Amino acid sequence: MPILEGRGVTRYFGGLAAVSDVDFQVEQGEVLGLIGPNGAGKTTLFNLISAALSPRSGSITFRGKEITDLKPYQICRMGLARTFQTVKIFGNMSVLDNVLLGAFFGGEGRIASADAAEAAASALEFVGLAEAAAIPARDLTLANQKRLEVARALATRPELLLLDEMMEGLNPTEVNRAMGLVKMIQDKGITVVMIEHVMKAIMSVCGRIMVLHHGAKIAEGTPQEVSTNRTVIEVYFGERADASDS
Amino acid sequence: MKKTTSKRMFTFGLVLLILVLAACAPLYAPVYTVILLTSILMYMTIAVSWALFSGPTGYISLASAAFFGAGIYTSAILGKALPLPLVIVVGALASFCLALLVGALTLRLKGIYFVMFTFGLVELLLHFILWWEVTICGTTGRVVPPAGNATVFYAMLIILVILVLTVFIIRRSRYGLALFSIGENEEAAAHAGVHVTVLKIIIFAVSALFMGAAGAAMATRWTYIDPRIAFNPLISFMPVLMAIFGGIRPLYGPIIGAAIFTYLEEFLITRFPYYYMLIFGIIMVVAILYMPDGLVGLIQRLWKGISGRKHADT
After folding, report:
1. Which range of residues forms the domain containing residue A186?
2. Beta carbons of B191 and A77 less than 8 Å apart
């Protein structure tokens, strides 16, 4: 049974179909890449899964349970955490407090303060921000702010993590570190779905890739299959001149 | 480590000393001072309870007058039937319930819309009760059974102490952290597992609880009240100004702000009855321009400057 499954997920913005009749399955333990040109509906799909938006039709199940009509806090407590494309950290709070919040509220049931503190500290350690625990989150670099979001999500003890463009705006060294982090998350046994534009990262980290275009799923498969898929190439680079002539 | 504990002991001792001095005020101070102190306690209560919710979350509520007024009216209606402590409890609960209802309706609103709605609530209640009294009761205004100056003073002191303890506990708990996170980024807080709607409504209602209690206690000092006195819009604006003046973030910011503001108001009214509002306005403008973190922030900055220079010398 897939850990996360969507059937016929559809969402309109006015007359525009942002996500249109998309089916998807995410298997336990895999890293699934979600790619597509700008405006393809990738972030909208994340918003639908994490309940920031509600779908117009279709259903989403997580670990066999219907989650379509739940609220964001409920989704998070069930074990499905996310990060954001434009970082949404608590800038005036300390790095540690950012992560503590996730530890306190993101898990199932009430957690003891000592356990939450431990969970927060180990999440910070995991992403490599333990040294920065006391400084205000706004003083971190962009790369570290993105890591902080990951730490906050990890502190909620998720089974599945949605990463929305974690490598956008990072320099090559930072991208390498971020790729390492994704692999470490997978090694912990957490399933990952990641939206990404950095092809190098997608190709080396993801076991499977799903391509969205104009809100519809146009391809799905291993990195090798997707990168040689004719439709995908046309979507990214346009049709070849000789191909349209003949 | 040692330094922080000794500092904490000093703060605790200082607070205790001020409390004891204040508690004994009716024994040695003239009646005028006791009445002035009661006003200060009242504004401190309103400002601190306002800052409990609006400080961390950034939702600027102008509904204080509505919750304060609800307490006043409870006191006016039940004052003859019940003893004062019970009246205060009922007034507090009435405000609490009102805030639960209003919170459930309005806390989905953000920014200026929330501000306008909360202020609208004050006007709505004022005119509803005015209409009720005119058309159904036939008379406007009510007589509140008076309580002695010392009684009101002690009632307000007890309310303030309970409030400060409550705020202290909430701020230090996980819910204090969650309140700040809502102010920082509400969406991220929700996705990190915080049930933002319920938390906002409950804390909003807790802050209203203490405003209602203050209203119920203070009503006994005014003997006669009518809707225009009970739902005075100034009560909505004063706590905001006081908290900004003192500093919103630290717990003692609104307390200091309320103390200075109330005294300043009294001083200016008696010395410059014609120019009082003008001077008050100038002070407020200067405060906002030059003390963005309030008086407490200014003192901290100055202190840092002085102690920093000391380190540079050695």
Report:
1. 1-79+159-246
2. no
